Amino acid sequence: MSLYNIEDPEEIMGRIAHPLPKFDMEELYNPTMVTITVNNEDAKMSSPWQERDFTVPRELICRYSDYFRGAFEGGFAETAEKATMITDVSPEIFEIFMYFLYHNEVAGADDEEEPATWAWSFLFWCYVFGDQYDSKGFRARIFEVIQIKMRQPASYNFPNGKDLEVVMNNLPSSDSLRKFLVAALLTEYDVFDGDDDEVSYAPEMPANFLAESIVLSRRLNSRLICRHCGPHGDFGQCHDKAHSALESRIGGLQDRQWCQYHKHDTDLERRVCECRRDTFAWKFKEPKTPTSLPMS
Questions:
Q1: Could you tell me which residues come within 8 angstroms of residue 39 by beta carbon, excluding any fewer than 6 positions away?
Q2: pTM for the complete prediction?
Q3: 66 and 174 co-located in one domain
Q4: 84 lies in the same domain as 34
Q5: Which residues lie across from 36 on neighbouring strands?
Q6: Are 141 and 172 in contact (CB under 8 A)?
Q7: Confidence of residue 12 (pLDDT cuts 50, 70, 90)
Q8: For the segment 65-92, what is each residue's pLDDT rounded down to a tens digit?
Q9: Torsion angle of alpha carbons 256, 260, 263, 268, nearest 10°?
Q10: What domain count does the chain have?
Q11: Rg, Å, the chain Cα set
Q12: Which residue segment(s) compose the domain that 30 sits in?
């Protein structure tokens, strides 16, 4: 029977997981346990002070995070003590990460709520954690949730200015999520189409986000009017530096270009990612026209 004939989409998605890291199976069968004490004393995310201890197999956390691999296998004090402390993360976010380590999915340990219903700011802080603690797999899963949230019929809502500050102030300009949000704003939400309500939303955006949006908008417009690259162009060789082939692939970020801003190391990773996209497409619908931005 074809995989896609299974009636329950959640069951399908559960069977399609990203390739796992290469584990030392002896370490998993007879694990060395390490303890991470987590408090948010120095966290930029606003929340009441909390502290929790998390104990996890060393092999598990080290294969999913280059940061913790360096700490626990790099010959530092943490290697001998089998313990470390981090003070810039909410224990709530680290709990999400712990769930990911064991299940290769994103969810709260005691929370059956769909992650795409979580607040934008919380999802962005989860992604920032994945970036700071160098967990590519966790970042990829959070990115997936962000893409789903952006397309859910009940929430055609682009993140507001405060939410965007989390991304713009804590991630490098080269980061894929930054680029994705800028591209989504222009191609899915049409914020610069001249509508007064949408243009009035622009001042709420962080200045660097607005600047990156304007730059990409100019590149997209340059391609549209190009006699070679435009929709009615002759497809001849183009030497115009005001745009590139990249701009031709930006549209359709939720379907045919789902992986445009993902960083897949192999073709297998990309194909698995696209297969997962197909299995949870039931969670959202494509809007037939660009979506208006929510006004505060």
A1: 49, 50, 51, 52, 85, 86, 87, 91
A2: 0.79
A3: no
A4: yes
A5: 54, 84
A6: no
A7: very low
A8: 999 999 999 988 999 999 999 999 999 9
A9: 20
A10: 2
A11: 21
A12: 14-157
